[in-house]
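Suppose a colleague, Dr. K., hands you the sequence of a protein chain of 72 amino acids and asks what its three-dimensional shape might be. Before reaching for any lab equipment, you can write down a predicted structure in token form. Begin with the sequence itself:
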Amino acid sequence: MQNQIVYQFPSAQVANRFLNEVNSSRLPDIKAKLFKGSDKVQVVYHYADGGFDSTSADLDDLANRYEGSEVS
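The predicted structure, expressed as tokens, is then:
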């Protein structure tokens, strides 16, 4: 199942830092792009098939490091 999260950041520069980290090879199978402006990032990924999937929590923690918050 596909999940989509949008994060908002204090500036475009910070949003791009988050975007670059999410699109790095450290987080495979996750796609991110700027969303409705330069200070929001949309992240799309698929839930793991079995067991607990910590991807959403990991993304929230990463966004928090960049002073971002989930908006949808």
